[in-house]
Each structure stands twice: as C-alpha cells, then as structure tokens.
Design goal:
Helices cover 49% and strands 0% of the residues. The chain is mostly helical. It has a single domain (5-324), classed as Glycosyltransferase, CATH 1.50.10. Helix 2 packs antiparallel against helix 3 (28-36).
Length: 325
C-alpha cells in the first residue's frame, strides 16, 4: 500500500509539524521550528489575518455579528466567529507564546461577550459543550479557566459524562458534550496539573465512552448514531470515533515515561473500524463536513482523501500498535 506520509509533508505547516512529531519522531527542535511557521505561513497566517481589530473574528463570540435565525436556517451553523477561530488555531498548533495571539487573548477578554447573555468570554456561559471548548482553548492559550472547570465538574451527570441539554431536563450524557468537556479537562490538566475533582471527572467521562466502546448504546449495544462511524474534520462540536480515539491517544501523553500502560482494550473495536476505512492509496477519506459558513476549506471535499483525517488515523494506529508491542 502506498505511504501517505510524503503527501502529508507536502502540505501546510499545521499538518507538517504534527507529522514530524507524531509519525516520524523528529527531534523536538525540528518539529518546533516547523510549528513556528504556523504563525507566518499557510492556514494559520491566513486565519490570523482575518482577526478583527477588537480581537474577535466576524464580530462575535459564538456567531458572527448580525447573523440571525433566518440565516442560520438557510446556511446552517456558522463557523467564522471567535470561538471557532480560536479552536482552529489551537488545532493548527499555533504557539501560545505568539505575540499576536497573546494580544488577541487580552482583547477578547476586554471586548468579547457570549451571545447567550453577554457573559465575558473567558468566564464561559451556560452550555457544557461551549464551556468545554472554552476551557480547552483558554488552557492552551494560557488563560485562567479554573472557574469554568469548577462549574463543569459540578454539572457531571450520574452516568459519568455531560449533556448540553441538562438544563432542559436531560439526565443522560451525550457523546458530543462529553468529548468537548473531556478535551477541555485534559488541556486544563496539562496546563495546570488539574484539581482532584477535575481529574476524577475526567476519569468518569472517559469511562462513559469506554463502556460504550466509543460509539454503542449501553442499553442495546447498537450504534448510538451511525454517523459516529464517519470521519469529520473540522470536528467543531461534533463527535466521531476517530475524535474519541485521538483524545485517548492525547491523554496517554500525560502519563510519565516509564508508567505507560497498554491502551484500554475496549478501544479495539473502534481501532479496527479505523483500519477498515483506509483507502487503497493509503489515505483516509473525509466522510462528512458540517454545513455552514467557513473562512476557507482545508480539504478537497467529502469523499476525497483528507490530510487531516489521515494524520489523525495514522497517529492513533501508531499509538495503538506501540501499546500492543
């Protein structure tokens, strides 16, 4: 089967540095030098150039300024506002010490307010998915998000996870909400060490996903949503099994060297599904793209080979196979 790594390296710095670190094991100095190019070249530089003078993107926190319900129904959820731009820059690997993003973080603190009720951006709002994503971005970019973390820990449901419909009476966790909160708690723990309560909450959230083999209903064993087996990028708030696997891979990097354990065997079914989806050219396809307004595209389209999906699939499989050795 052809090796897709050359095509991944012939790409944007946002992908190239992660290939160097996660797939090729390049020396830290080499991949960090490539990562630094995210600020000045390619997708990262392009997105940074779209920042408003007040530090926001598209004039809003969650949706663009002036974006109304009619437009949402006609176009789908928009992905151009501040929350989604920050998340994309983090996924690109923009250095948190970048002068432009440090300035941007402070401008957002001063100027950006959540659409829900005007809450200051870095204090979060009321919805678990949004707050989980605010935590992961804030922790990555050096913001104190401990207040949001404390709130999320207190909103955990009895089955161990989270659901953004909790305020509307939901008593069962959702895959979507849980992965968004877990990613936030993981980044918070990486940045600060976490708290005893946040570490326990992260463990119970992981167990929620593991008990369900990352995509099955606990009650019937059937897929909770067939779309969880399709690969999406950018994920935004959406869950799929590859995002779940990449979370567990990332969480394993927090374990001190020498104390690593084999990946949980309950991930095995999802791993085999990822293996089964590899194309004959060695890549993985983009199965689905969330509709809605974007600044620019980063893949060739649904059904075509995706560098982002291929990168994530390859590093998940490498981690799994190393854990089986």
């Amino acid at each position: 089967m052809p090796d897709p790594i050359p095509s991944l390296l012939d790409s944007d710095p946002a992908i190239r540095w992660q290939v160097m670190r996660d797939l090729l094991g390049a020396p830290e100095g080499e991949w960090r030098a490539e990562r630094a190019r995210v600020e000045t070249e390619g997708w990262g530089a392009r997105l940074l150039a779209l920042e408003d003078e007040d530090g926001q993107w598209a004039g809003g926190a969650f949706v663009p300024r002036g974006f109304d319900e009619h437009t949402w129904k006609a176009e789908g959820q928009p992905w151009t506002a501040t929350a989604w731009a920050l998340a994309q820059l983090r996924e690109f690997g923009l250095d948190p010490a970048s002068a432009q993003i440090r300035r941007g973080v402070e401008l957002i603190r001063a100027n950006s307010r959540w659409d829900h009720d005007g809450q200051p951006y870095w204090e979060g709002e009321v919805e678990e998915c949004i707050n989980g994503r605010t935590v992961v971005d804030g922790a990555y970019f050096g913001v104190d998000v401990s207040g949001i973390v404390e709130r999320l820990v207190g909103e955990r449901l009895e089955d161990g996870g989270w659901n953004c419909e909790r305020a509307n009476g939901s008593l069962r966790s959702s895959f979507h909400s849980t992965i968004n909160v877990l990613e936030g708690l993981l980044e918070f723990e990486r940045a600060t060490g976490g708290t005893e309560a946040s570490r326990v909450a992260r463990q119970t959230g992981e167990e929620y996903l593991l008990e369900r083999r990352l995509f099955r209903r606990l009650s019937t064993g059937e897929p909770a949503d067939e779309r969880f087996l399709s690969f999406v990028y950018p994920s935004r708030w959406w869950y799929d099994v590859l995002r779940g696997l990449d979370y567990f891979r990332d969480a394993a990097t927090l374990i001190p060297s020498g104390n690593e354990a084999a990946p949980d065997p309950r991930l095995g079914e999802a791993i085999e599904h990822v293996r089964s989806r590899q194309s004959e050219d060695g890549t993985w396809p983009l199965d689905y793209a969330l509709p809605g307004r974007t600044w620019f595209d980063m893949d060739e389209g649904v059904g075509k080979p995706s560098r982002w999906v291929t990168l994530r699939a390859m590093r998940v499989l490498k981690w799994w196979e190393q854990g089986q050795a």
